[in-house]
Amino acid sequence: MKKFNLALSAAVLTLAATGAQASCESGERVVKFSHVTGGTTHPKVVASNKFADRVNKEMNGKLCVELYPNSTLFGDSKELEALLLGDVQLLAPSLSKFGSYTDKYGVFDLPFIFKDMDHAIRFTQSSEGKELLTEMDEYAGFVGLGYWMSGMKYFSANKKLEVPSDAKGLKFRVQTSDVAKQMISAMGASPQAMSFSEVYGALQTGVVDGQENTWSNIYTKKFFEVQNSVTETNHQLLAYLFMTSSEFLDSLDSSTRAQFMQIANDVTQEANQSVKAKEAANRANILKAGGKINTLTPAQRQEWVDTMKPVWSQFDQYIGKDLVKAAAES
Ligand code: LMR
Hints:
44% of the residues lie in helices and 17% in strands. The protein is of the alpha/beta class. The chain has a domain at 2-98 and 127-149 and 239-274: Bacterial extracellular solute-binding protein, family 7 (D-Maltodextrin-Binding Protein, domain 2). Helix 2 runs antiparallel to helix 10. The radius of gyration is 20 Å and the shape is globular. The structure holds (2S)-2-hydroxybutanedioic acid (LMR). (2S)-2-hydroxybutanedioic acid binds next to loops.
């Protein structure tokens, strides 16, 4: 009995830590959704919760989504492999994390290619953008379900950054993206690729001096607490590929599959419609919590553009010049 109680409390604690809210019934197919973000106001958290709620209500008895946010099931380095192994069925990794599979997603990382999120959304809805959604399907086993926008990115550091030369000699955490690495080098700084779950600790202990991310990640992961300030550079997009595996999709009968795909599509559209408001709210949350935000004069902003945009010429031949043009002109 004692043993049972201990096991039960361990299970309850695990559930609390992972945020796996559903209690799946026997006979239901469990669908694990793993991601790396946290908090309650993050666009990916809100969208994944919404997806789970809808599937668990509307497909009750058939499918049951369990959520594992905050890298509690798999972190950045393991999640794609886990999807192929069938250890998880849903992911939403940043498009910057597919470099070992495709060069084409580098288009989303090019600095200053998108003026704002509306521009990025227009590109994802263009014929070129739609075609890219299934780019990962070429790699046996992955299926792109939709793009989930997250926000534009901003630099933070342990000193105030106004112009790129302020970053000279600093170390910045980046995602595993060659474009991001070159962009940081162009500032005279050093890029250090690391998993998202390690960033707070690395900033706190000085392993890196700065990072680049959205308002939602900077707020929900409390990066602003261990940085001097965040500079409103607006230099790059962060967006996700909401994805599953062909093994999972193929295992569903056609009506279950159609219902699942419909919910995925609805949630994707709804998430992208509300993402700007979520980002604005998390920017305000940073200020409310005592974080500092530096805005740029047009001349300062131009310096960032002039420093980072030349990086395009190192990648456009691999990404495809037509694709870069289509994204820039969307
Ligand atoms: C990052 O690694 O900075 C982001 O991709 C995390 C996320 O999923 O928003």
